[in-house]
Every structure is written in C-alpha cells, then in structure tokens.
Amino acid sequence: MIDLGLSKLAVIGVVALIVIGPERLPKVARMAGTLYGRAQRYLHEVKSEVSREIEMEELRNLHKEVQETAHSFKTEVESFGTEVESTVSSHLGEVESAWRGDAMASSAPTPTATPDDIERKAREFRRKKLVKTSSIPSWYKNRHGGRQHVLSGAARVRKFRPGAKSNTSFF
Question: Is residue 147 part of a domain?
C-alpha cells in the first residue's frame, strides 16, 4: 500500500487547502473519508467472498473424497456379504444333511459322545455351578485360612511394613 507518513499528510493537506479553498475543504474531506470507507468495505467484502469460495471448494473436494470412500466401502461390504452368504449357505447345507443323517455329509469326522462322557460332563457342570453359587461357611474359611476382612492396598502395606505397629488406633 501507499506509505503515508505524518509529513506527507501535512503536505497533502496544505496543497488541498490552497487548491480547494477553506470553504469547500470540509465537504471534500468528508467526501474523501466516505469514499475511503466505501473502498475499505468493498475490499473487505471481496476478501471474504474469496475466502468463502476457497472454503466451499475445499468442502466440495472433501465431500467428493467422502463419497468415493463410502462407495469403495460399500463395494467391499457387498463383496464381503456375498462371501458370507456363500459360506453360510454351504455350512447350512452341511448342517441340514447331517440332520437328515446323510452318510459322509462333511469331510471332518464328527466325534461321538458316549453316555459315560455325557454323565461325566454333567457332574463337572453341576460341581462347578455349586462352587460358584454356594457360599462358603465361615467355619470353613477360619479353618483353611480364608480372608475375614478385605484390606485396602495401603492397609496391607502398613500391616506388612517392617517395624510398623499393626494394632495401633487411627486416632
């Protein structure tokens, strides 16, 4: 831009005063100020419009990239879906043929469970369920060293720290 210092503005003011005259100088100064303000507003509008256009172009490019990514993802999902459908239909055919009792329906040998295996698994299941659901009596815990009270980490550190008194009160 034009570099206007204080001395240059003073020279321009003196020349304007001589050329225009003291009667019309205030009107011309107001007109010059309004024209300068309009020019600044116009430049600001142009700059903001250019920046908006740049942002819109970036958004269009981003939108295009997102659409391309979505389209490629959709084609991948469709191809994966057809693979899953074919796999499920083949396994469904194997299950149906095994249900009907077709001989050698699948290439993998199916293990046959004997009644002893079934009975053993049922006993294990009942035992595990009983252990999970039953509460252990306190006399059993006392006899076999089970915990009576839960200690926090800080309390355990204090209890087992060498030289610490474990039976001191808090206060």
Answer: no
**Could you give the CA distance from residue 90 to residue 28 in angstroms, rounded to a whole number?**
92
| CA torsion, ordered 123, 128, 134, 139, to nearest 10 deg | 100
In sequence order, what are the residues at sequence separation of 6 or more whose Cβ sits closer than 8 angstroms to the Cβ of residue 97?
A: 105, 106
Domain presence at residue 106 = no
Q: Please compute, for residue 64, the number of CA atoms within 13 A of its CA located in the half-sphere on the CB side.
A: 6
Domain count, the chain: 1
Tens of pLDDT along 5-50?
888 888 888 888 888 888 888 898 899 889 999 999 999 999 999 9
Tell whether 92 is covered by a domain. Answer: yes
- Could you tell me if 134 and 141 are in contact, meaning their C-beta atoms sit under 8 angstroms apart? no
Triad 27, 28, 30: Cα angle to 5°? 65
Q: Per the domain annotation, does 26 fall within a domain? A: yes
Fill in the DSSP letter of residue 106. S
Cα–Cα distance list, 111 to 3, 108, 114, 117 (Å): 95, 9, 10, 12
pTM: 0.37
Amino acid at 157: V
Where in the sequence is the domain holding 52, given as residue range(s)? 6-100
- Quick one: 132 exposed, middle or buried, by C-beta within 10 A (0-12, 13-18, 19+)? exposed
